[in-house]
Amino acid sequence: MIYLDYAATTPLDARVLEAMMPALVADGLQANAASSHAPGFRARAAVERARAQVAELLGAEASEIIFTSGATESNNLAIKGVLEFRGLRQAHVVTSRIEHKCVLDTCRYLETQGARVTYLKPGADGAITPEQVLDALTPDTALVSLMWVNNEIGVRNDIERLAPLLRERGVLLHVDAAQASGRIDINLKQTPVDLLSVSAHKAYGPKGIGALFVRRKPRARLAPQMHGGGHEQGMRSGTLATHQIVGMGAAFEILRREGAAEAERIAALRERFWQGLQGLDRIHRNGAGPSAPHVLNVSFEGVEGESLRASLADLAVSSGSACSSATAEPSYVLRALGRDDELANASLRFSFGRFTTAGEVDAAAERVCLQVKRLRSISALWN
Ligand SMILES: Cc1ncc(COP(=O)(O)O)c(C=O)c1O
């Protein structure tokens, strides 16, 4: 089995596992980080170290990092939290049609509560331009929520240019950076994003842990969505998952040191794979805009989506996003880019990462070429 689904999740790095182990066992960091005794203080120190490691990768202050259970929760907290704080009834949100479901469904929920939402359509290149966002603003716009890197096509939005434009206009900007952190350069000291969501399991850390960056100056104000003991500055109650948090810190620390070189290596593997597919005609690379290094989304003319996936059972790849592949509907992201149902269905997302080798890339490309040619030879869709 060749694993080319790093955008869905990444394996834990062995160094991260090693960092996490002491937080799981007796005489380690097993105490509650909120407890006022020596073991509790040790656990707290480990949490704060991890908070600083996460902040460092993003160019943030440690006090701006709120730990959550992952990017889904961070996105919910950011979007619902801002709107609830501002007052739902009058509020307007600007987002895009190709956000992750956890943003889209949160927006749809808020619409049932009286909010208004504008869903921007990306260009054929897969990006939303800052001008599109500015055109959509109204005097009631409380929040813009836009992803930095799209999970299905890897295309990046120009958040560096958008953020100062929104700051000038006094509109809050939330960015879903689940696919971006560690893969592209993020410096929140230079880019005035107000809220930013990240997840550890997209970055060689454990599943079930993520964070929301909440800017302090100027302060982004939110209503908490989880009430309880007042953890995480009152924004996210619940006993801190020390082992997960330590793992996320270690994963982000590794990315801070190795991310830039790794991104170059992964981008080269992706291009090598794309070159390997060039023996096939009538294939289309989805999302021509500037992109993060790890995702390649390809539509194959003249094959049926279901047969294509079945023929590649020894490759772990994704048809659209993993979260929505249970629905067997053509990807809403590819549809928004203008692909018709048939072509959207005959599309695969290949995503590459830390443990991908050139040998795997070559073998996978060869396998895809072979199967697409075979399916076309027996397909009524191909002439
Ligand atoms: C862009 C994007 N946002 C949010 C999420 C959700 O992240 P998590 O699995 O940490 O809840 C994902 C992962 O599927 C993603 O790719």
UniProtKB/TrEMBL annotation:
Record-level Gene Ontology MF annotations: 2 iron, 2 sulfur cluster binding; cysteine desulfurase activity; metal ion binding
Gene3D superfamilies: Aspartate Aminotransferase, domain 1, Type I PLP-dependent aspartate aminotransferase-like (Major domain)
Domain Aminotransferase class V: 2-363
Keywords noted in UniProt: 2Fe-2S, Iron, Iron-sulfur, Metal-binding, Pyridoxal phosphate, Transferase
Domain of life of the organism encoding this protein: Bacteria
Classification via InterPro entries: Aminotrans_V_dom, Aminotrans_V_PyrdxlP_BS, Cysteine_dSase, PyrdxlP-dep_Trfase, PyrdxlP-dep_Trfase_major, PyrdxlP-dep_Trfase_small
Catalytic activity: (sulfur carrier)-H + L-cysteine = (sulfur carrier)-SH + L-alanine
Enzyme class, UniProt record, top EC level: transferase
Protein EC: 2.8.1.7
Named cofactor requirement(s): pyridoxal 5'-phosphate
Family affiliation: Belongs to the class-V pyridoxal-phosphate-dependent aminotransferase family. NifS/IscS subfamily.
Identification of the protein by name: cysteine desulfurase
Organism: Hydrocarboniphaga effusa AP103
